[in-house]
Amino acid sequence: MKRDILLCIAVAVSVVASYAAYVSAVHAQRGDIYFLYVHVPAIVVCYIAFSLSLIASIAFLAKRKHAYDRTAEVAAILGLIYGAIALICGSIWAKSTWESYWTWNPKQTITLILWIAYMGYISIKLSIGNVEKRALVGAVYNILAFSLIPLNFLSAKLWWSPHSYPSEVYMAFPVSVSLLLNLIAASLFFVYLLITTSTIWSLEDRVNVLIYEKGEGGV
Prior knowledge:
Layout: H1 2-28, H2 36-63, H3 66-98, H4 106-127, H5 131-145, H6 148-158, H7 173-218
Helix pairs in contact: 1-7, 2-3, 2-5, 2-7, 3-4, 3-7, 4-5, 4-6
């Protein structure tokens, strides 16, 4: 019931945010700026997802509870989804701004490397059969992969890049409000997906345990 309420709120905020972004784009007479309202919230939530995944992996190493490992994996998968959205929308926006979908500037390149690194994390989780070893190796890899996050965030500052941060650009009040609303909507959907996916996987684990116990009892 709580998840349904959360989903309804997320949808409502998303509708308002989409309309605000549309009005802002029309007012600015730049249709391409609409992708700004998708790109920025997506990359921010991507950072949040990978940060949560890191915290869950550290908690697993400390407590050795598989619920933390499951949270780390779910958060990483959602981070990949939001990261893919950020890369795609960023490329479309770059085409109108820089006249090229991809310029291999530091920000774009490190974001792609970050995305590939977390794909490697999921690949590790899928390739190792032993549950304990899979969780342990995945947690260690996750901690190492997270080191790319600070580098990715600072890349536009450390090296020359046409990419800029919202804080470095003057934004009118309607633009700031539209960005904030879209960020809230993206965050609410992330929380909903995280809770729902974790619940489904937990139920699946319980079913597998019951099937295993029933099989053992029947022998």
